[in-house]
Design goal:
The structure holds 2 protein chains of 2 kinds. Chain A is mainly α. In chain A, 84% of the residues lie in helices and 5% in strands. Classes of the chains: A mainly alpha, B mainly alpha. Chain B: It is a multi-pass membrane protein.
């Protein structure tokens, strides 16, 4: 079992308190939480539109295809787009920073 | 209907499933192999396996039936099923992988350092798993009866036996292979007949759905689903699906079978594409059903619409062959979902509920594999017995109740557990107990009491919208009131959960 005396020198706690780690986490939160809120809002908006804007939703775009149907299919497409955005962001922004942090801390601790 | 084709298709699917399972068996050697397939599954195959496992009876048969009876709002089911994956990916997938746990109870214990929480999570995993297995077995009974006229107990039994044989023998690695193959079987089985039927529909001059006498069907949120408050019901359902996916035991374990975080993200992207592709088809069957079968024959469930449609549209051997193909696909759906669920439920029963007791009873005179096999049998027998006793309430409805329970229990545990340092042991337990019992009570009333009118019925039929916030609030408030019960290694655990894998810290 660890004790309080040891905890003071715990590399994990040191890492937790380091500005680099805080930066990494806040970057993640700043990207992920708003995005989650935004895409849930978009799904919920669709339900509202179907109920309260049924004229708009039943506007014919071409043939028997109306706005509602297109937006409905758009739900699947947007799910996919959101996932792509996240994967790209993680590959481009998050992983390199995490790897950089890994090298600094890893050297201290090995 | 000529039952010979259907029997051939179903026997074929069961044989293929067993054969691939047996092949995988030879590859499965270590514990890690057994539970997480050695964490070496490639993203593409893993995604196929996830898709294969996720597309259950509810997806293959249930959605078409719902669209047929209730109208286009029911498209929310497939959208919600897919969205759940994205929420899981961005919020909890990475921290969970890094925790190094194999199962939900493992994670709960590692994060909250409490065996009580572990026990609670184990009970919940088993409960959710059984709730989800129930419609798979009922669906199998319905499908086999539709295709061959066999009594409903036969279909469920066939699925139960095949699943027990596969899971008990091969564990996760063989299941992964079985499920990856089954995704493609399912997609083919639903897509090919759909194109043939669309061709037939165009050949008939593309008639419109027979909605003249039932205009409500074409209206959005018409309340045909028997719920008095369709906007509430739709929102609640969407919440349950979006937040419940992360709490489904068989879904989560898949994220551990990826070699690293990057692969886990690739996997999810592929999964979303695969699910999206599949979900284009079930609604098509629902709409074509409206055109060609204005009223279902008395005594047949809407869940069997997919299987009946070819016979109603193409009056020849072709129709029978198409029905058989769909029945085979449906069985692939029951088998793969039931295998994944059984794997998770059996793992938990074995580790947390059975092993010590068995050890005491036999004086440790049993092997690990024997214990797991016994757990496998147990985890299938109980839902099978229940499926004989409980009247089917609709495959997709049943599955959505399992989602609601998962969303009201594991969602708060996972989200708060991986993002909030203030979560205390007592708070987490209170959240699980309160959310779990409220959701379970609502489910029990919905299943046993039948349709209830008005707000009461709506709130009980789709409990997620109130049980999730209550569960979150309970966990937060109780945690704030018991700061002394915050696990002592929280800081350490949090770093571990949020530090990318390649960081060279001791994870032991």
């Amino acid at each position: 079992m660890s004790n309080d005396a040891r905890t003071e020198h715990d590399p994990f706690v040191a890492l937790q308190d380091s500005p680099e780690f805080a930066d990494l986490r806040s970057r993640f939160r700043r990207f992920v939480f708003p995005m989650t809120g935004l895409f849930l809002a978009w799904y919920f908006l669709y339900v509202l539109l179907s109920v309260y804007a049924s004229d708009f939703m039943s506007t014919k775009v071409f043939g028997n295809i109306n706005v509602g149907l297109l937006l409905g299919l758009g739900q699947f497409v947007s799910t996919f787009v959101i996932t792509i955005l996240y994967v790209r962001w993680a590959d481009r922004e998050f992983d390199p920073r995490a790897a950089a942090l890994a090298t600094t801390i890893g050297d201290d601790h090995r | 209907m000529n039952s010979a084709y259907g029997v051939v298709a179903i026997v074929l699917i069961c044989t293929v499933t067993l054969a691939i399972g047996a092949f995988g068996l030879r590859l499965s050697r270590t514990t890690s192999d057994f539970y997480v397939a050695g964490r070496t599954v490639t993203p593409y195959r893993n995604a196929s396996a996830i898709g294969g496992e996720y597309l259950s009876a509810a997806s293959f048969l249930g959605i078409a039936g719902l669209v047929y009876t209730n109208g286009l709002d029911m498209l929310w089911f497939p959208v919600g099923y897919t969205v759940g994956y994205v929420v899981l990916l961005v919020l909890v997938a990475a921290p969970l992988r890094r925790s190094g746990a194999y199962t939900l109870p493992d994670f709960a214990e590692a994060r909250l350092e409490s065996t009580v929480i572990r026990k609670l999570s184990s009970v919940l995993v088993v409960a959710i798993g059984w709730l989800y297995l129930l419609p798979q077995l009922q669906g199998a009974g319905l499908a086999l009866r539709t295709v061959t006229g066999a009594p409903t107990w036969v279909g469920g039994l066939v699925v139960a036996v095949v699943v027990v044989a596969n899971v008990a023998a091969g564990g996760m690695r063989s299941i992964t292979m079985v499920q990856a193959v089954q995704y493609w079987i399912k997609l083919t089985a639903i897509a090919v007949p759909a194109f043939v039927l669309l061709g037939a529909w165009l050949g008939d001059g593309a008639p419109s759905p027979a909605i003249a006498r039932d205009t409500a069907w074409a209206e959005p949120l018409n309340g045909l689903a028997g719920q008095g408050h369709p906007v509430y019901a739709t929102y609640s359902l969407l919440l349950a699906l979006a937040l419940g996916t992360m709490g489904l035991p068989h879904v989560l374990v898949r994220f551990y079978t990826n070699p690293d975080g990057k692969a886990a993200r690739r996997t999810t992207l592929t999964v979303v594409a695969l699910l999206g592709a599949f979900y284009l088809f079930p609604p098509l069957y629902g709409i074509l059903g409206r055109v060609y079968i204005p009223e279902l024959p008395l005594g047949t469930a809407a869940d069997t619409l997919v299987l009946q449609l070819p016979g109603a549209m193409v009056h020849s051997q072709l129709g029978e062959v198409l029905s058989a193909v769909l029945a085979g696909g449906a069985f692939a759906a029951f088998l793969s979902t039931a295998s994944g669920l059984t794997m998770s439920v059996a793992g938990v029963i074995d580790q947390d509920l059975l092993r010590r007791r068995l050890g005491r009873m036999t004086g440790d005179d049993f092997t690990v594999a024997q214990g797991f096999r016994l757990a496998t049998v147990l985890s299938v027998i109980v839902p099978y017995a229940a499926s004989r006793l409980i009247e089917p309430v609709g495959l997709a409805t049943m599955v959505s109740l399992a989602f609601a329970v998962a969303a009201s229990t594991f969602c708060p545990l996972l989200v708060l557990g991986s993002w909030w340092r203030g979560l205390s042991t007592v708070g987490a337990a209170a959240g699980l107990v309160v959310g779990g019992s409220l959701a379970a009570a609502a489910v029990a009333i919905t299943i046993f009491a039948g349709p209830i009118p008005g707000w009461t019925g709506a709130l009980l039929g789709q409990p997620a919208a109130w049980t999730i916030p209550i569960s979150f609030a309970t966990a937060v408030v109780v945690s704030l009131a018991t700061p002394g019960r915050i696990p002592r290694h929280t800081a350490r655990t949090m770093v571990r959960l949020h530090t990318p894998e390649d960081l060279a810290l001791d994870r032991g």
